[in-house]
Amino acid sequence: MTRKNKIALIIMLLFGVGIFWFEVRKLNLQQLWQNVVHLHFGWLLIALVCMLLSWMFEAFVVQIFLKGRTKYFPFHNAIRVPLVEQLFNNITPFASGGQPAQLVALMRSGVEAGRASSVLLMKFVVYQGMVLINFIFTMVVGFDQVAAKFSALALFIALGFVLHVSVIAMLLLVMYDYKFTKKVVGWLIIPVRWFVNDKRAKQIKHNLDDKIDSFYQESLYLKREKKKVFYASVLTLIQLLFYYSVPYFVILALGYTNVDFVRVLVMHVMIVMIISLFPIPGGSGGAEYSFKTLFATFIPSASKLVLGMLLWRVFTYYLGMFMGIWALAVKPWKAPQTDHS
After folding, report:
1. pLDDT tens-digit map of 225-260
2. Are 138 and 270 spatial neighbours (Cβ–Cβ below 8 Å)?
3. Alpha-carbon span 245 to 316, nearest angstrom
4. What is the catalytic activity of this protein (predicted)?
């Protein structure tokens, strides 16, 4: 990690402590402690296992896309990729550091740079597609309930949905109408020229054209490798199911057993939609507010709601940071050298 990344990590940890202090400052601390003592730790263990399995299935996706493209890539190396991604997603605005960090992790494992970029691009496309499927299911099943009770949050959820649909639409446009996409980029650059000089505008267009060219070439590979895409899609759906299940087991750990699994899942998907709109790393602030607002319907106790929010963030946010630090410290395995003597 660079010095800048270490500072970002410390800032986000301190920010998290500040948010938790802000939430507990008016609570009865003795009551909060009693809630901690009476937690059902077996359910918390299952929540932890869900997060670990989520990362494990993401590692399987990496291995699937590398199969036949590299001779040696064991699970030890594959699991480092999602963990490093977690760390850098969680300390950079809009999770922008995750992709470059994964690229470095793959290259340090012996994967050639172009091949590593290709794998990450395919993984990104599949992930966005499966996230969109989850979002559509959520909008159909539960959006009307949220809109009726929480109109302000419903707007953020709708914006998050539109954002993800736009990303998928752009990816499909590149895959199936490459030339038209280039024209669209040219049109979009026109208003950019109003704010930057001509040299900068040309540089932006050149960079976008390079990314479009790169993605188009990879889309041809995706179309040929339908079986890999199918397997990766199924594994990604399972990965997301484990991730979205975490708050359900946190609620059970708090002692609320009469909760509907699908409703909790839907609420968590909506929170993820909202988080995607916030530029602050991990959506800090917005994530906690969304959890408290949406999950208050399941957790009526104020102290248990704050405790549930903390446990949820520990599993889905802070755990990823520390696992990512561990993944950085662990060296990848290199292919065994054959003795020709």
Report:
1. 889 999 999 999 999 999 999 999 999 999 999 999
2. yes
3. 11
4. L-lysyl-tRNA(Lys) + a 1,2-diacyl-sn-glycero-3-phospho-(1'-sn-glycerol) = a 1,2-diacyl-sn-glycero-3-phospho-1'-(3'-O-L-lysyl)-sn-glycerol + tRNA(Lys)
